[in-house]
Structure formats: C-alpha cells, structure tokens
Specification:
Oligomer: heterodimer
Radius of gyration of chain B: 18 Å
CATH topology of chain A: Arc Repressor Mutant, subunit A
CATH architecture of chain A: Orthogonal Bundle
Largest sheet of chain A: 3 strands, antiparallel
Number of domains of chain B: 2
Structural class of chain A: alpha+beta
CATH class of chain A: Mainly Alpha
Structural class of chain B: alpha+beta
Number of domains of chain A: 1
Helix content of chain A: 40-55%
Number of helices of chain A: 3
Order of helices and strands of chain A: EEEEHHHE
Strand content of chain B: 25-35%
Shape of chain B: globular
Number of strands of chain B: 14
Number of strands of chain A: 5
Largest sheet of chain B: 7 strands, mixed
Strand content of chain A: 15-25%
Largest interface: A-B, 15 and 16 residues
Radius of gyration of chain A: 13 Å
Strand order of the largest sheet of chain A: 2-3-4
C-alpha cells in the first residue's frame, strides 16, 4: 500500500487528522486508525502484529481489524494498492 | 454596467474591501452604506452596479438577482455573502469558522454551528445587550495569534462594532426546540470533527490550519444545546463571565 500524494496529516491528542486538499475532505482517525495509517506501507500481517502487541488482542482479531480498516482507507482513496 | 463611483469600504475578516457602486445603488442604499464606512486603504476592490432592472445587479461581471425589490438588509446580506465567499476561500492567515462572534469581557466568544443552529439569533440578542459585534456567519481565527477579526453583519444592525479580539471560547450551538438545556465540553476527536466540518477555507490554510484545529480541539469547545433564545442567551452570558483558564 502507498499513501495518496499530497495528503496533510496532523496529530491530535486522541487520534490523527488526514486531510485531502485535492478533494477538500478531512478524516479524523482514532488511535488504532492512526496506528494503521502510520504503518500503512507495511504488510497486513506486520500491521496486525503491531496492533496485537499494542492493544493486547489476538492476532486474528487484529488482522481482521487491520484488513477492514485498510480496505476503508482504500475505498476513500487515501491509500492506493501497489502494482 | 453603469459607470461606477467610489462607494464604501467595509471590514471583512480583517480585510478592507472597497465597494465601488453605481449612482443608482448610491441612491437606493446611500444612507445605509455610510453607516458601515471604514477608513484606510483597501485590500480588495469590487465593483457593484445595477443592470437594467433594479432587481438585477452585477459584481465584477457576475450577475446576481434580488428575490424582491431590495430592502437595505437584503443588500447588505448579499454583499456580505459575496464577500465571505470571495474572501474566505482565499484567506490564508486565518481559519474562517462558520460562526457568529461577539466581544465579551474576556475576549471573543464564537458561536459555531450549521445553518439554523442559532448563530445569528444569539449574536443579535447579545449585541442588543451591549456586546460588541464581531461576526454573524463567518468568523476568522488568526492561525498563530488566535485573534478574531470583524466582519460585516448580514441580517441585523448592531449598535457596537468591535475591533480585532483575541479568542476566548468557541461554543458549538444546537438549537433544539423543546429540548432541555445542556452544556458540556467537547474535546479531541469530536472537537476536531466539528471544526473541520464548520469552516470555509481549510484548503487555503493547509497544514497551518490543521495545526490550529489541533490546538483548539485540545483546548476544548463548549457544546450548548438550547430550546429557545432566552435560554441560549442566559447560558452564553454565563460563559462570557467565566474566568480564563490558567496558562
């Protein structure tokens, strides 16, 4: 995965703002979302491992959450699939 | 377009806007216009003239219609609307929030919210009680210093117009007829969402605007749900008397 070019991000106390100036649309991610976003270039397995470690959840659950959220980011055009 | 003459200079988001208007507009609105005259060099100059009919006019080549024969407030409303749209999207030194604003003892109180949330109603009620008017529909907050600059009113004539004023509180308004009054703090993600939704120029201010959103959401907004004008006014006046937080 790679991030769409030109996006602006800003840390807030409990999450992350991702702003797409081209579309003039802003998204507010919670802490888990921010963690996924910041590691979006890694593989799904690697992201799941980071979530599982940080939030003390099972790998399967973490993998499912990561996959669903990555798909949502792709759907909004913020992440692009390689290749 | 008819030959124009120098007209009025108004303050909008801290910018001086020169409206050069036609003799016909001068005749129709001259007395009203002179009330909002401000001195100093203009940052932006716009030409306004009437076309053949008096309910059709033109700003810089774009035709606009009055729905009816213009009254004074219709005209000021249209000018304010145009100015807001022209300036807000380009303004790069302030985040323009969808808010009315008045000056209280402690600083500027912004009343933010979507159409119908009570912004104008409460701003008018506060101005009727002697608070200085700052903004009715778009309130610019300086990106670095958080100073709120004045703008023209749109639907009422305030007695007292305030100058630039440092931000004190942002209140997110919800007018809900029949509801119980509720006041609470909104912070973090929820506050960021409201600020991101209720602004006119995030694109123009970019990452500096996002940084301001983060600072404001960390400081927190106040969320006010109120059932009628009197209750809204009572609570905003209480907020106006609050002591500032220690820094």
């Amino acid at each position: 995965m790679r991030k769409k070019e030109g996006l602006l991000t800003q840390r807030i106390e409990d999450g992350l703002i991702v702003y797409d100036p081209q579309a003039d649309e802003a998204y507010v991610l919670n802490e888990t979302g921010a963690l996924v976003w910041e590691n979006a270039e890694l593989s799904e397995e690697e992201i799941a491992a980071i979530i599982a470690e940080r939030y003390d959840v099972g790998k399967d659950e973490a993998a499912e959450d990561a996959r669903a959220f990555l798909a949502e980011l792709v759907g909004k055009g913020l992440l692009l699939r390689d290749g | 377009m008819a030959k124009t003459q120098a007209g009025l200079i108004t303050l909008h988001f801290g910018k001086r806007v020169a409206w050069n208007y036609s003799p016909e507009l001068s005749r129709l609105f001259g007395g009203f216009i002179s009330r909002f005259r401000a001195s100093g060099p203009a940052d932006l100059s716009l030409t306004v003239g009437l076309r053949e009919q008096e309910n059709l006019f033109e700003i810089e080549g774009s035709a606009c219609f009055f729905r009816e024969v213009p009254e004074e407030l219709d005209f000021i409303n249209v000018l304010s609307y145009w100015t807001r749209n022209l300036l807000a999207r380009e303004l790069a030194d302030a985040l323009v929030l969808h808010a009315s604003a008045v000056r209280a003892r402690q600083g500027a109180i912004l009343m933010m919210g979507p159409k119908g949330s009570g912004k104008s109603t409460l701003a008018k009620a506060l101005c009727d009680e002697g608070y200085g008017f700052l903004a009715e529909d778009g309130a610019p907050v300086g990106l670095e210093d958080q100073v709120v600059f004045p703008s023209m009113p749109m639907s009422f004539l305030p007695e007292k117009l305030a100058g630039p004023t440092r931000l004190f509180r942002i209140v997110s308004l919800r007018y809900v007829p029949g509801a119980r009054t509720a006041l609470g703090e909104i912070r973090g993600k929820e506050a960021s969402l409201e600020l991101l939704r209720e602004n006119f120029n995030l694109r123009a201010v970019g990452s500096r605007g996002l940084a301001l959103v983060a600072r404001l959401s960390e400081r927190g907004l106040l969320g006010l749900r109120f059932p009628d004008r009197e209750e809204g006014l009572r609570v905003i006046k209480e907020i106006a008397e609050l002591e500032p937080r220690p820094r």
